[in-house]
């Protein structure tokens, strides 16, 4: 333990506390130092293989084929049991938890004691179904829905939207699998604190299959990558785009403006994450519905205010999904890759991150939370991303920017300027309804804040898996995490996209390998939950 603490201490002091500096050009200096690593990491993770003359990123191939397989294997659970998932979140089946004493999670040993002999049998988690969903949704419904949609469309054209939706629909099945496993293989300590996620189902699940070393290696790799993803896509990208929107809307300029905005975010985040998952859940269950309603209401208002253009936008999305314009690099395959890549970043299906939050749910049936988890890609990608995409496509009907002409993450505008990410979405909002971009500023800040909260929990759980559970472990991670909150606001969109994209996509490799080994366990858990529902209905019918 002493050696681990020494490592953590060195990591903490090796990062400069950039938020304290006030020198002119600080943001540029940080970006120049960060960009080389971001570029290398993106190239490494997005290594391609040649299929029919097209260079396909291996990670996306694994992600898509796995999602299609799970959808077929589980009998289109994403569609057939969508209503069941809604009912679970509403609490319709809560009585099953008390009527039937069956516990479907494994018995694991912590500090020499068996979990099921040290915990209250009436308590099997820390949060309810809705809180778990809100926490996980706050981690997935973030600026990827606003900024990354703009990036996907500016690079891949309107057709990228179609493939984002397809990826979201299939991704629902993958989320079902990983969230079920997250609950099944979780740990609960003496105080009732839950530790779960891919780290645990990779190590414990593969151990059951006889692959002890493989499970440990994959779990460690996932935990390490998840820490990096929490620093990148779950943190730095969020503050980057929030800062960009604030600076753009209010005309704030200066060499260290981004860093100062990052410091403010870091202070606010720090206040919440000190309290752990219970406080995070309490905040997200209030913030997530509000921010979702705010953004969806604004988006729907714009769409219905320009309803005559909606059919044209949708038609363009479908046509260019298969026959993109000549300016789009890679043609049909290029558009598909952009759609799948941005969907993966947005809803994280296959990355396994959300299973960490869902593992904390208070339930005896692992599959019940798997069903709750499948709602995330639908909310995130099918609903919210689609709304953003329609608004951006309508905005570009008159050629406001050039599809396919993107440099450093920014599209070429008709006036010759470069705009990218959240600022492109902001222009689309303002074009539809003048002044509506100020509503977007509020939504952006809330999206960024809630996503950072959730990913702080994901990263901390992974950090604890690597370095042990203790106060120093908690503190060291939270310090580093808050430093990246500041860093994200200082670096450019191009650098943060490269790093964030690659970090989240990297999680797919260890996670999907585990899912392809363990999916039969999910079928067993699912059958038990469905049987419990049938028994409950039968008892109600005869009584």
Model description:
The chain crosses the membrane at residues 58-76, 146-166, 217-237, 257-275, 287-310, 374-395, 437-458, 479-497, 503-519. The chain has 543 residues and is mainly alpha-helical. The chain has one domain (14-542): Amino acid/polyamine transporter I, CATH 1.20.1740. It has 24 helices and 9 strands. The longest helix has 39 residues, at 212-250. The termini are far apart. The relative contact order is 0.21.
Query: What's the shape?
Result: globular
CATH topology: Amino acid/polyamine transporter I
Helical amount among residues, as a percent range? over 70%
Structural class given helices, strands, pairing?
mainly alpha
Radius of gyration: 23 Å
As laid out across the biggest beta sheet, the strand order is 7-8-9
**How would you sum up the major sheet?**
3 strands, antiparallel
* CATH arch. level architecture: Up-down Bundle
Distance between the amino and carboxyl termini: 57 Å
Number of extended strands: 9
Q: How many domains, as an integer?
A: 1
The percentage of residues in β strands lies in: 5-15%
Total number of helical segments? 24
- Stretches with pLDDT under 50, minimum 5 residues: 6-24, 100-123
Estimate the mean pLDDT confidence: 81
CATH class division: Mainly Alpha
Protein name: Alanine/glycine:cation symporter family protein
Organism: Dokdonia ponticola
Membrane topology: Multi-pass membrane protein
Subcellular location: Cell membrane
């Amino acid at each position: 333990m002493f050696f681990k603490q020494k490592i953590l201490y060195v990591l903490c002091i090796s990062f400069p506390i950039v938020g304290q500096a006030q020198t002119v050009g600080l943001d540029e200096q940080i970006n120049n130092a960060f960009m080389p690593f971001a570029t290398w990491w993106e190239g490494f993770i997005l290594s391609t293989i040649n299929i029919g003359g097209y260079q396909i990123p291996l990670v996306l191939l694994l992600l898509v084929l796995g999602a299609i397989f799970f959808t077929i294997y589980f009998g289109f659970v994403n569609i057939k049991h969508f209503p069941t998932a809604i009912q679970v979140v509403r609490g319709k089946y809560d009585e099953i938890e008390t009527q039937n004493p069956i516990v479907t999670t494994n018995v694991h040993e912590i500090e020499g004691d068996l979990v099921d002999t040290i915990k209250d049998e009436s308590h099997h988690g820390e949060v309810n179904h809705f809180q778990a969903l809100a926490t996980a949704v706050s981690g997935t419904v973030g600026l990827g829905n606003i900024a990354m949609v703009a990036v996907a469309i500016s690079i891949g054209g309107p057709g990228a939207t179609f493939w984002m939706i397809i990826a979201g629909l299939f991704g629902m099945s993958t989320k079902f699998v990983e969230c079920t496993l997250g609950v099944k293989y979780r740990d609960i300590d003496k105080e009732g604190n839950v530790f779960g996620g891919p780290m645990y189902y990779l190590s414990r699940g593969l151990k059951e299959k006889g692959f002890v070393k493989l499970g440990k290696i994959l779990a460690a790799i996932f935990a390490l990558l998840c820490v990096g993803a929490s620093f990148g896509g779950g943190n730095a990208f969020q503050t980057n785009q929030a800062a960009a929107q604030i600076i753009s809307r209010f005309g704030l300029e200066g060499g260290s403006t981004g860093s100062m905005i990052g410091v403010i975010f870091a202070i606010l985040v720090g206040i919440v994450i000190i309290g752990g998952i219970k406080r995070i859940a309490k905040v997200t269950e209030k913030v997530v519905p509000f921010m979702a309603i705010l953004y969806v209401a604004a988006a729907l208002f714009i769409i219905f205010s320009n309803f005559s253009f909606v059919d044209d936008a949708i038609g363009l999305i479908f046509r260019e999904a298969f026959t993109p314009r000549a300016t789009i690099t890679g043609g049909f395959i290029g558009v598909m890759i952009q759609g799948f890549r941005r969907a993966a970043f947005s809803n994280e299906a296959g990355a396994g991150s959300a299973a960490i939050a869902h593992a904390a749910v208070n339930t005896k049936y692992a599959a019940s939370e798997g069903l709750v988890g499948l709602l995330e890609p639908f909310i995130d990608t099918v609903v919210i991303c689609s709304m953003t995409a329609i608004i951006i496509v309508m905005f570009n009907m008159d050629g406001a920017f050039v599809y396919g002409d993107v440099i450093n993450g920014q599209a070429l505008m008709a006036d010759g300027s470069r705009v990218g990410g959240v600022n492109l979405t902001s222009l689309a909002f303002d074009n539809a309804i003048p002044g509506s971009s100020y509503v977007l500023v509020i939504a952006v800040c809330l999206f960024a804040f809630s996503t950072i909260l959730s990913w702080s929990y994901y990263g901390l759980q992974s950090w604890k898996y690597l370095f042990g559970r203790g106060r120093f472990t908690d503190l060291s991670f939270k310090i580093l995490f808050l430093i990246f909150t500041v860093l994200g606001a200082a670096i450019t969109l191009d650098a943060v996209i490269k790093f964030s994209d690659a970090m989240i996509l990297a999680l797919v490799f260890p996670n999907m390998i585990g899912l392809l080994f363990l999916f039969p366990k999910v079928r067993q858990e699912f059958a038990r939950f469905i049987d419990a529902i049938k028994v409950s209905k039968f008892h109600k019918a005869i009584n």
